[in-house]
Specification:
With 282 residues, this protein is α+β, with helices and mostly antiparallel strands. The chain contains 5 helices and 12 strands. Strand 4 and strand 5 form a beta hairpin. Helix 2 crosses helix 3.
Length: 282
């Protein structure tokens, strides 16, 4: 055979032959290995034949080869001899550009300055265009007092106001003097005060129940028509009138309205020390 017809065999790391020998010594078939490793039979055969191109990406070659070595209790370092199963390392990322902190601060400041300038370019022309329409307000001078004579006779007359807002300029003239009013005479605390009198006039028969402020009973009786009862308001606390429609209640001669105390022709009310009538608290 000539040299031209001879074919140079592909370089082999010997890992595939070691896998095949170890599998046969363990008495396992390729199908049994594929079942234990959850692989396809063709993958096990490719590993033993070192047909790495059939297994796909480099990361798959490394993973499947290490699993096969681990199953047959062979050192996993044998996978390092296979270039196609070498550990994949991620590329190191290096920044191409570096911006100093001062440069970043300057860029941020310039951005804000541009924003302020643009805002001013929009607002200032609008304000200048609207300024003539606001109108120039006229000035009003008002006096806060009178002239230096101090007698309060001649007061400054304010100028008539016109429509629209106008500024007010105050004049610091002398203010008028206040006349001190005499204080009212004080009433002594021990001065005697006259108490109110409560009078009951009966135009018909009615029973009454009169109690003092301390709860003691003053009178409880059936009063006939035409009679009259008179009490000091200071001595009274509670009054009940059985036939309220036939009884007239007077406080110092003034007739009192009993309708707000009356219920089913029976009136119940309390009397204060000043003779003021009030409903009975339930």
């Amino acid at each position: 055979m000539s040299a031209s017809n001879q074919t140079t065999p592909a370089a082999s790391s010997g890992v595939g032959e070691q896998l095949r020998s170890a599998r046969e010594r363990a008495g396992l078939s390729q199908a049994e290995v594929a079942s234990r490793l959850h692989m396809q039979v063709r993958v096990v055969d490719a590993l033993e034949r070192e047909n790495w191109a059939r297994l796909g990406a480099q990361v798959f070659v490394r993973g499947q080869l290490r699993s096969y070595l681990r199953l047959l209790k062979l050192p996993e370092s044998l996978a390092d001899a296979v270039p196609e199963a070498a550990e994949v390392r991620p590329p190191t990322l290096t920044p191409r550009t570096y911006t100093p902190p001062m440069q970043r601060l300057l860029d941020k400041t310039m951005g804000r300055a541009v924003y302020v300038v643009i805002t001013a370019l929009i607002v200032v022309p609008v304000w200048m265009a609207a300024r003539p329409h606001l109108g120039a307000p006229s000035e009003i001078t008002a006096s806060l007092g009178i002239d230096g004579t101090g007698d309060g006779a001649d007061a400054a007359t304010p100028a008539p106001q016109s429509e629209g807002p106008r500024p007010l300029t105050a004049s610091l003239a002398q203010l008028p003097k206040r006349t001190q009013q005499p204080a009212p005479a004080a009433v002594p605390d021990d001065a005697p005060q006259q108490g109110a009198t409560l009078t009951l006039r009966f135009s018909g028969d009615s029973w009454i129940d009169v109690s003092a402020a301390d709860g003691s009973q003053l009178e409880q009786a059936l009063v006939q028509a035409g009679q009259e009862r008179r009490f000091d308001a200071d001595d009274l606390g509670r009054i009940v009138l059985g036939n309220a429609g036939a009884v007239e209640v007077l406080r110092d001669g003034d007739v009192q309205d009993l309708s707000r105390f009356q219920r089913a022709n029976v009136a119940r009310f309390t009397v204060s020390s000043g003779g003021v009538l009030a409903p009975v608290a339930e």
